[in-house]
Amino acid sequence: MKIAQIMAGAPIGGAEGFFERATIALHQGGDQVLPVIRRDAERAARLRAAGLQPVELAFGGALDLLTKPRLGRVLRDFKPDVVMAWMQRAARFTP
After folding, report:
1. Are 94 and 71 within 8 A, CB to CB?
2. Would you say 19 and 33 are in contact if contact means Cβ atoms under 8 Å apart?
3. Which residues of 58-89 are buried (b: 16+ CB within 10 A; e: fewer)?
């Protein structure tokens, strides 16, 4: 299954940690997983170390006019079966 996992949360937190563990577990279980994350070098490195190719986007505030169309292009190119947006910020930017 092709799964896009979208996380725009803080560098550290309970949901953020669970996102990483769940994303890695899905990948290790054989699913094709695309993590899309708020720019975070440490999270990206952990995901890459697990064999994933994270996409980093700004997921900024009200004046961020670029993330939503960029995320839309990423999702159109990946063609996921499932899109999981974690928490309000990620959901707000998900087309």
Report:
1. yes
2. no
3. ebeeeeeeebeeebeebbeebebeebbbbbeb
pLDDT in tens, the chain (95 residues): 999 999 999 999 999 999 999 999 999 999 999 999 999 999 999 999 999 999 999 999 989 999 999 999 999 999 999 999 999 999 999 99
Q: Which residue range(s) make up the domain with 39? A: 2-93
**CATH label of the domain that carries residue 31:** 3.40.50.720
